[in-house]
Amino acid sequence: MENRKRGPKSETRCGCLARFVVRFVAYTKRWHVTLFIELHNHDCLDPRLVGFLPTHRKMAEADASQMNNMKDAGISTPHIYAMLANQAGGYENVNYTLRDMYNEIARQRHHVLGDARVALRYLKNQKAEAEKGELRCFI
């Protein structure tokens, strides 16, 4: 069917000549820049928008810890994000988005469920050993 075809994706490769090569020199035990070409054939991203690139959207450990404490106190995620942005001096100075905060909360919740699964597996094994009469108490 003609109307079910996807449109072509935009071209992201532009043949940019910019290069930065660093090599480790064993006898000096130092890293050296061996090639640096600053010539770009395209417009570079505005420095204010660099924080929105996926590779730069990292939540600092201190921010994650502070977010967890505030979540435990019952503060909503958008309010936490606003407070962290206020601490950083504005939303443009925060290296992650509100969506990244929600993803971090889900990641931590999933990790807790993983710990619960391990505990349940341990208790099931204890029950099975008790039924077999092999349970030993180490208390």
Automatic annotation (TrEMBL):
PANTHER family: OS01G0519700 PROTEIN
Domain of life per record: Eukaryota
Name assigned to this protein: Uncharacterized protein
